[in-house]
Amino acid sequence: MRDKLFNSQSDISDFRFDESVVAVFDDMVKRSVPGYVAMIQMVGLVARTYGKDYTNYYDLGSSTGAITLALALNNKHKNNKLIAVDNSPQMVKKCQKNLTGKVDNFEIVCSDINDIAIENASIVVLNLTLQFVDVENRSKLIKKIYDGLIPGGVLIISEKIHFDDKENQKQLARLHLDFKRANGYSELEIANKRQSLENILVTESKQAHLERLKFCGFRESSCYFQCLNFASFLSVK
Fold it and tell me: What's the CA gap between 227 and 82, in Å, rounded?
């Protein structure tokens, strides 16, 4: 379904992953996030390289299941369990529907990702998820993931980022707006969605992400993919 959630003048409430968002989410994210399709494809490639037999793969903040599906379709390993987690009951229902019949040995959990135990994991993915976690809780979450990964296991984080250099930030933000306009969003829709997300989605710089990953113990971390102001980080335990 095409995203038309923000195309009228009305009081704008904080963004929530409710039934109205779930219905248009796949269209919304493709038209709002530069490089989104490639971002998903890259996760599949990482699964081929870093997945291990007899381990768990976690998709934290799974939304409609695109990452879990990419992990499953690219998995060349044996006896893996795929665990998708989201705190929106509506998202969990849609994810279950999207994955049933396509993915074997998966579990969908409706829970806050901060409350989930990470165990025997070779792959953990936070795809456009960490930006919705309170900043003061992010290090604790990343450390919990690190502790639950096997040696050589990986964490993949994809996020909207900002830039400390004001001119660079201004340039990339302008290009992002042009991207959304090119995908059919009106000025009203762009403004309304920005207002809805203002206090919900909190970005950080690329350097802040890399410093946190190092602080939490990862021996290798790199920004392996970027499209405008969206970036993906790969960290190896």
Answer: 27
